[in-house]
Amino acid sequence: xxxxxxxxxxxxxxxxxxxxxxxNAINLSQGFPNFExxxxxxxxxxxxxxxxFNQYPPDSGVHELREQIVSKIKLLYGKSYxxxxxxxxxxxxxEALYTAITAFVNKGxxxxxxxxxxxxxxxxxxxxxxxxxxxxxxxxxxxxxxxxVRSAISSKTRMIIINTPHNPTGTILSxxxxxxxxxxxxDTNVILLSDEVYEHLIFDKEQHQSASKFSELSERAIVCAxxxxxxxxxxxxxxxxxxPEKLMKEIRKIHEVxxxxxxxxxQRAYAEYLKNADNYLKLSKFYQTKRDLxxxxxxxxxxxxxxxxxxxxxxxxxSGITDENDVNFAERLVKEYGIASIPVSVFxxxxxxxxxxRFCFAKTDDTLEMAAEILCKL
Length: 378
Ligand code: PMP
Ligand code: GLN
Hints:
- The protein is an alpha/beta fold.
- Helices cover 40% and strands 14% of the residues.
- The protein is built from 15 helices and 12 strands.
- Helix 13 (283-297) runs parallel beside helix 15.
- It starts with 11 loop residues before the first helix and ends with a helix.
- Residues 25-374 form the Aminotransferase class I/classII large domain.
- Keywords: Aminotransferase, Pyridoxal phosphate, Transferase.
């Protein structure tokens, strides 16, 4: 068999979660909450099922849900999208990213990827015959060197992928970053793919800088989002993407032949739940409290860190504990200490990230306390 993705291994998220289960370890690796989604939302799904919404919904998503997405974006970022032509509900953000890349990247096209990067981007680019052009984020705060981005753009560049708030580092792009990106892309045909699955998880009174907020950028932007991340139900695998009609037309062609449409009762439930903006506006505070609890609990440990500014991940540097590499240390932590994390080097090309682990703090306070107790003993 000739593999289409010879260098691609089983996802680190599957590997670490399995290892955690096999060793009965506390699982702070794969990003999902260990607490329940809102009972109200579950009731809305049951209601939708009982009301007969059990057959195919429209391929681009339930219209009421697309309308609610439009209202949310208008409220938060001031941009008006058309629910009929510019929104598609997808099987998680994963499918949104896949369809967006597949719709536009052709053989030999270059796609700029900022490293560390989420694990699906590069394999998807390669499946379309595209060439990932990696640019390393810089320094302790993983900032973007926009001059480097500018010099990487050529006539072959088809797309650039950004992710804010950023997995795994917990950094965010500022308004200044977005304006620089807007300026760099003006006068080019480069498409912006903006992965914003953690848009509602942003801390310390910072504002999320969505690509939809910047009028010129939004004309070339495909924005991807995830209800699973937002509403504590990653297993429902529902998300969406937003793009100007000319781009969305092409995305929908791929969406139709990949999944056609996405589960119907969940879409009805989200449409109802989104009517109350507090359901998403309260999340930053909720997760900031968890971040603060976790950091406070480990403040006397030998780990060093910069506090996460968004997402539900915290990077911890362990060079004060051991000089082994992150993959070995992560494995030993599961097997010998009963705690699972994600080694950052798997997202990366940089040597420096061999001594950092990513911990997911979307966990009950009890779990965070048990985890911190172990981490403080190292
Ligand atoms: N992008 C990033 C940065 C992620 O962390 C994840 C994981 N949720 C996804 C995309 C995929 O999201 P979903 O679970 O909705 O497919
Ligand atoms: N996005 C999640 C994370 O970063 C995992 C999603 C997955 O398991 N594919 O942990």
